[in-house]
Amino acid sequence: MTKHTFTATLLATTMLTGAAMAEDVTLTIESWRNDDLAIWQDKIIPAFETENPGIKVKFTPSAPAEYNAVLNSKLDAGSAGDIITCRPFDASLALFDAGHLADVTGIDGMKNFSNVAKSGWSTDDAATQFCVPMASVIHGFIYNKDAFKELGIEVPKTEADFFAALDTIKADGSYIPMSMGTNDQWEAATMGYNNIGPNYWKGEEGRLALLSGEQKLTDEAWVAPYRQLAKWGAYLGDGFEAQTYPDSQNIFTLGRAAIYPAGSWEVSGFNNLVDFEMGAFYPPVQAAGDTCYISDHTDIGIGMNAKTAHPEAAETFLNWVGTEAFASLYANALPGFFPLSNGEVTLEDPLAQEFISWRGECESTIRSTYQVLSRGTPNLENETWNASAQVIKGEEAPEAAGKRLQEGLASWYEPQQ
Questions:
Q1: Phi and psi at residue 87, in whole multiples of 5°?
Q2: Span 114-131, mean pLDDT?
Q3: Are 100 and 305 in contact (CB under 8 A)?
């Protein structure tokens, strides 16, 4: 090869390498949230790409019910995207244990999250994180402000206030006091037991004591919420035993009920359906001056495919998810799904802002059954659904429910034996 040919070849190679380096990296996101595809395409991805030239992002969701199976088959085949949207707890932990999700404990973006926020995507010993927390849902009560004004009811702060309000609504007769059914069971536990319960077991203090075996489901702190639920049946209207979750939604949005035990995911849907003003209040405390606790439940996270060809670009994206800019963008695009980062976020939607404001007043915890305690048989989450529904219907005593759940948990969970 002549000197001239060598130089020309070297120059051509250098130019090709430079062109290749200048090409954009494309990251693909796997998700089950196909309902927010437009939000990712129109708002979230353009904001990221503007800040990070050279990285393109594609959002490629699957149907929610098929996501786990589709994702697992793609991961096994080596064809999964670079970024993996993570369900909380065991489903994502299993992916990490199988080597599919990268360890993201040390990335800069993780510094912006509390231990409660990280709990949905941490190993059992809390030492390692495998997804960046993205959003939570908060529990409380949504109420019809027009009905409260009409009946002269103040927002209840204590349990005594709460039941006085329910009695006033019931005595007036214009509205069903509270819209919730027991047909689907999960409502009774999720919007009932795990909504009001943290005020009794003191949030994370009680939840972690149950995990360690220091507390039992027969303890007063765990039975007392069932005692409150046992009183709810009198305020749920005729036929609540056969009422489904969509029935409950309809009864409230049509203005027939004054109070709705809620998850914040209802916010955007309800906004489009009601013709009255809504407000929200956190679960009333037992006595004035008590610390309030809210179920601020880890719902959705985002992680890195351990076999991505673009780990640096993927890490850049995950770090951006940890920023205040992303938190504000995501929370305002999806009212009722709240950022889990420590940054200050102001929401444009007044009802969503009411929910998130409770973080400044109350202690946050997650649903008591979701971490570790539903891995065995009987499954504590499903058993809690059933017990909550039975107690509300008056078919099981609170103490009997606690005893049954404790025996079931102790039958397979070693710290409770």
A1: -70, 160
A2: 94
A3: yes
Q: For 30-184, where are the alpha helices, taking DSSP H only?
A: 37-39, 45-51, 67-77, 90-97, 115-118, 145-151, 159-172
Q: Which of 65, 58, 69, 66 is nearest to 30 (CA)?
A: 58
Distance of CA 152 to the CA centre of its chain: 34
Rg (CA), the chain: 24
Residue 184 gets the label, from left (phi > 0), alpha (psi -120 to 50) or beta, of alpha
Which residue, among 216, 195, 153, has the nearest Cα to 362 in the 3D structure?
Answer: 195
Q: How confident is the model at residue 311 (pLDDT cuts 50, 70, 90)?
A: very high
Q: Which of 371, 117, 23, 395 is nearest to 229 (CA)?
A: 395
Q: Which residue in the block uniquely carries the two structure tokens 């048989």?
A: 377
The full set of domains in the chain, from first to last, is: 3-135+298-349 (3.40.190.10), 138-296+367-416 (3.40.190.10)
pLDDT digit string, tens, across residues 188-208: 999 999 999 999 999 999 999
| 3-state SS assignment for residue 255 | coil
| Residue 129 DSSP one-character state | B
Distance CA 203, CA 363 (A): 7
**SS (HEC) of 321-384:** HCCHHHHHHHHHHCCCCEECECCCCCCCCHHHHHHHHHHHCCEEECCCCCCCCCCCCCCHHHHH
**Upper half-sphere CA count for residue 209 (Cβ side, 13 Å):** 14
Q: 378 preceded by cis ω (within 30°)?
A: yes
Indicate the average pLDDT of the chain. 93
pLDDT digits (tens, 9 = 90+) for 383-405: 999 999 999 999 999 999 999 99
Alpha carbons 331 and 33: distance in angstroms, whole number: 15
Average pLDDT over residues 20-49: 89
Amino acid at 83: I
The DSSP letter of residue 289 is T
Burial of 104-135, coded b for 16+ CB within 10 Å and e otherwise, reads: beebebbebbeebbbbbbbeeeeeebbbbbbb
Please give the C-alpha separations between residue 250 and each of 88, 140, 293, 369, in angstroms, as whole numbers: 29, 18, 28, 28
> Percentage helix, strand, coil, to 5, in the chain?
50, 15, 30
Residue 78 Ramachandran class (φ > 0 left, ψ -120 to 50 alpha, else beta): left
Write the CB contacts of 129 (distance below 8 Å, at least 6 apart in sequence). 103, 104, 105, 110, 118, 121, 122
